[in-house]
């Protein structure tokens, strides 16, 4: 029987402070997996210690597991919802998950409590920038009161006593799901790997098997899918897709109006079509073809006359960082 098994059966052999200090040292060294183990052992001794919960939350966030990071941050706020460290790391976890609006709320809440801390000010700034990149500035968004508004009506009486655990898990999976086009754009070559893992999950004979160490094949596949979903969420908030679509629509509207009442030139129409083709190639996973198309379009734009200089600046800015950067 090894020492880990003995410690599990007999309980922790050291004090809470010892395991907490050990976790801090491992965190500083970048050994986040072992740091989590030390923090977890410390929490077995003092389950509600908020500083230890925040420390473990930071480790989970470093490893890209924002869901567990958010869980620990929320637990640290259970007894004191004004604990500034818990507010900070709850906001950070929400930001990594792409919930920029809610992250901004908690950055502001922490900033009101501890205005001298730079972390909250920087958090407010990056959350606001992420929101602007995702949906645009308020002046470019027009809200309309049409469509199905029943979601906003207060129900007369509750229809259910509550959700079952399975329903909650299904809801979480649904919220994390992306359209296939969006996933393909974000994952690139890894998109095919995700499709392959999904097909394996449907092979009932395969997933019932096990590999070395007694781990089930189903568990390995599920971990792979969870990792790719986490990466998808991370890359989505790093380079938002819909901001590019919105900017291209605004540019199309401007071109359609034309400058000084003139119709857009044929060269503008051609470049616009090329941008759409570049986007489709990237969505289909053809990064090399998308890169070639973007470079060709950029050469065309660079050859425009001085009369088209304003549009050249817009298209050049749209083509070079967005499409060429994504293809690379």
From TrEMBL:
<protein>
    <recommendedName>
        <fullName>Outer dynein arm-docking complex subunit 4</fullName>
    </recommendedName>
</protein>
<feature type="region of interest" description="Disordered">
    <location>
        <begin position="309"/>
        <end position="328"/>
    </location>
</feature>
<dbReference type="Pfam" id="PF13414">
    <property type="entry name" value="TPR_11"/>
</dbReference>
<feature type="region of interest" description="Disordered">
    <location>
        <begin position="153"/>
        <end position="183"/>
    </location>
</feature>
<dbReference type="InterPro" id="IPR011990">
    <property type="entry name" value="TPR-like_helical_dom_sf"/>
</dbReference>
<keyword id="KW-0677">Repeat</keyword>
<keyword id="KW-0206">Cytoskeleton</keyword>
<keyword id="KW-0966">Cell projection</keyword>
<feature type="compositionally biased region" description="Polar residues">
    <location>
        <begin position="317"/>
        <end position="328"/>
    </location>
</feature>
<dbReference type="InterPro" id="IPR019734">
    <property type="entry name" value="TPR_rpt"/>
</dbReference>
<dbReference type="GO" id="GO:0060271">
    <property type="term" value="P:cilium assembly"/>
</dbReference>
<dbReference type="InterPro" id="IPR040111">
    <property type="entry name" value="ODAD4"/>
</dbReference>
<dbReference type="GO" id="GO:0005930">
    <property type="term" value="C:axoneme"/>
</dbReference>
<dbReference type="GO" id="GO:0032474">
    <property type="term" value="P:otolith morphogenesis"/>
</dbReference>
<keyword id="KW-0802">TPR repeat</keyword>
<dbReference type="GO" id="GO:0061371">
    <property type="term" value="P:determination of heart left/right asymmetry"/>
</dbReference>
<keyword id="KW-0963">Cytoplasm</keyword>
<feature type="repeat" description="TPR">
    <location>
        <begin position="16"/>
        <end position="49"/>
    </location>
</feature>
